[in-house]
Backbone:
């Protein structure tokens, strides 16, 4: 699991790595708005209906885009054949992603937001363990130190929000389990990314996840679709901005960065949320918050310097 050598990347690789890192940051920035759009949609829809609309609208947008891509690439490269094993991996990714979202949503009804956020944000730990156990990945001490610093920073941010009363163990367990499913899903996506484009992965996982959430919503809820234009706008933004563009950028860069580093970078989401609240709602940030921000950013910077964060292409 540990790798002590730290080989320098070539200049051309450094340039592409910087571009990929910038697009990763853009993807995380876009995904930080997901909670806002979800909150708006849930004023009218249930969580399952909100997730269903997110998936099916994304599928509707991705289908013509995938057709155009296939026609463009037809003349230059052969079509990617999806065999039975690939279909099994697509189904697995869809199940893991759907479980992660519903466990996360359920934990918020059973425990405090602070506990749920904190436990859900330990995803990089499970991504590192999963990459080591299942994908044979190795991580040097620089990467592990950066991950540890970033997670400590998230603990500091969440510390001020904890209440003195004892929270529900059941809700905490759901939040922790959602982090496990989320990490496993990115490991599976990393496996898919070695063969398929990001748009192909998004299309089939959104389609399959949409089918799963449709069955769940149909059996538990009475309303599937929004009635007001505000809710329609919220779920469309969830689908196009967050699911297609945000998740698409993260999946696209799994070709160059490990799933462990991608999930680690997503620890900046709580920072962005806090900064948005500071700018938009004038919410005060304590000196402890600013210290936590610096610790998280230093941790991510150290992890980025590690060779373990990137996949070196010969």
Residues:
């Amino acid at each position: 699991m540990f790798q002590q050598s730290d080989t320098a990347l070539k200049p051309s690789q450094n340039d592409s790595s910087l571009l990929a890192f910038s697009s990763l940051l853009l993807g995380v920035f876009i995904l930080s708005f997901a909670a806002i759009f979800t909150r708006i949609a849930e004023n009218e829809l249930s969580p399952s209906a909100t997730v269903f609309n997110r998936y099916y609208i994304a599928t509707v947008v991705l289908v013509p885009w995938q057709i155009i891509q296939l026609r463009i690439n037809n003349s230059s490269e052969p079509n990617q054949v999806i065999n039975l094993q690939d279909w099994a991996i697509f189904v697995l990714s869809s199940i893991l992603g759907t479980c992660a979202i519903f466990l996360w949503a359920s934990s918020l009804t059973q425990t405090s937001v602070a506990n749920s956020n904190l436990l859900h944000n330990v995803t990089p730990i499970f991504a590192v363990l999963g990459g080591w156990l299942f994908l044979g990945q190795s991580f040097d001490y620089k990467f592990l130190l950066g991950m540890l610093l970033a997670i400590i920073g998230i603990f500091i941010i969440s510390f001020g929000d904890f209440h003195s009363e004892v929270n529900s163990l059941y809700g905490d367990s759901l939040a922790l389990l959602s982090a496990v499913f989320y990490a496993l899903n990115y490991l599976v996506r990393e496996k898919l990314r070695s063969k398929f484009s990001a748009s192909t992965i998004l299309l089939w996982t959104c389609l399959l996840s949409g089918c799963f959430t449709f069955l769940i919503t149909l059996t538990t809820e009475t309303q599937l679709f929004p009635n007001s234009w505000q809710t329609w706008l919220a779920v469309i933004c969830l689908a196009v901005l967050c699911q297609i563009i945000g998740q698409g950028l993260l999946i696209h860069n799994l070709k160059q960065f490990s799933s462990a580093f991608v999930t680690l970078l997503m620890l900046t989401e709580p920072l962005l949320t806090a900064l948005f609240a500071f700018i938009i709602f004038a919410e005060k940030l304590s000196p402890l918050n600013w210290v936590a921000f610096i610790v998280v950013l230093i941790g991510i910077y150290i992890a980025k310097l590690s060779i373990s964060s990137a996949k070196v292409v010969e």
